[in-house]
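COMPLEX REQUEST
Ligand: pyridoxal-5'-phosphate
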Amino acid sequence: MKDRTKVVLPEEELPKAWYNLLADLPSPPPPPLHPATKQPIGPADLEPLFPREIILQEVTTERWVEIPEPVRDVYRLWRPTPLVRARRLEAALRTPARIYYKYEGTSPAGSHKPNTAVAQAFYNRQAGVRRLTTETGAGQWGSALAMACQMFGLACTVYMVRVSYQQKPYRRVLMETWGAEVVPSPSDRTQAGRAVLSQDPDSPGSLGIAISEAVEDAATHDDTKYALGSVLNHVLLHQTVIGLEAKRQMEVFEDAPDVVVGCIGGGSNFAGLAFPFLSDKLKGRAVRVVAVEPTACPTLTRGRYLYDFGDTARTTPLVKMYTLGHTFVPPAIHAGGLRYHGDAPTVCWLYHQGLVEAVAYPQTAVFAAAVQFARAEGIPPAPESAHAVRFVIDEAVRCREAGESRAILFNLSGHGHFDLAAYEEYLTGRLVDYEYPDAEIERALEGLSSLQPA
Ligand SMILES: *Cc1c(COP(=O)(O)O)cnc(C)c1O
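STATUS: Structure written out below.
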């Protein structure tokens, strides 16, 4: 099986359970805290927003969590996803490295995000919820949730950052095609939105404002809950279906990765691929696990490990993570996504423990890698995924220079078909690099000292 280009597992090999890395960690990550008391939060604090089953998954330390059959039924529309040996890229790089990518762009929404959206819609439906709310920036998460809600008969309200709503209509149309209601944020539907509009009627919006609106909408309607597309433990759990399939596919290739790579925004696609392999690393297998982020939002590489709010509006519990401060505003010139000010607390804990490495790249280098990959393998990667591609290409070149043949596995978390405006900026030389300034980071972090527990 060594000579093949791709491994596509039969539907019978779709995993029956998600893998929970928390079961195998030598020590647990620091708990989320209530901002007022600085005491660990309990399930009751989350009940206005999430159904019970999701809350239980957020805190469980069971190693395996069964995937409900209705969720597997939807997964079967596109899963198992292919694992591809990037032979043409290897040839173009003249590298002795063996490069593999797990391709999550085959989902209807074009990314890994439906893996959790489908599960979340199912558990909400099971709990009698009628409607889900969420926020979206460019629309990747919103479209995944819109599709999932449609499949389980739920209504879906997506608060979309107003500037994206105006400038990037196609994801909105996709969400509407799947039956979601898309509301430009700030809106007059919520107190949070009205407060912003009264100050600035032309506000372009932000992810922070959109989160506040989606949370308020869910908390003030009995039949409505909220859904989050990354960062939380239950999201990482659902995404492990990626790594579980990839492990089996690597066996069919009669190979095993020396390096596992994923881009990181909130941490879900990275964790989804990496956690099943980290399980082996905790048992002593030598494998490097690398998270790749943009220099415009250098959370792991330059952030500080502190308690911070998950959102700009300071509505969430305090979570310990590498953070650039909840007041972080991503630079407008950055086209590559991955703009969250923190990362999943569990991933941050692994990084803090030295189990995970991190690297940051500027966006022109990222898009150069994206184009190189598209010209060799055909698929134009999502700009987010292209961060992982950049590292993989650099690592493959290091293998060539050192004369070493390593197996490199990465998550191609989505395709870039909705991101061609950013590709055009790159191809016409209009994309510029941006290094987030130290002074900005220092200033944002100063505000966090009062949030730390005694
Ligand atoms: C949303 C998204 C990401 C970043 O989110 P993570 O939670 O870090 O995975 C990466 N790649 C694609 C294609 C995305 O849509």
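REMARKS: The mean pLDDT is 95. The longest helix spans residues 383-402.
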